[in-house]
Amino acid sequence: MADIGSEVKREVSAGIASVSRMMERLDTRENRRNGDGSNVLERVAEDRRSALASASSAPNSQAATSN
């Protein structure tokens, strides 16, 4: 059962990384259209922190329901 938990954590981490990259690309594209390149990295970092915070509770809730 411990392997399932680590696999779930690995998949969640990969999903967060994927979403983070997509968000970064969207921010970059949006800023090019708007001509605003300021604070892009700050927004991406904040988005990543938010995604990590919300996902850190997801594996625990999944593990609790699967046991």
UniProtKB/TrEMBL annotation:
Chain intervals for the UniProt region annotation (Disordered): 48-67
Taxonomic superkingdom: Eukaryota
Compositional bias (Low complexity): 51-67
Name of this protein: E3 ubiquitin-protein ligase RHF2A
Species name: Platanthera guangdongensis
Gene expressing this chain: RHF2A
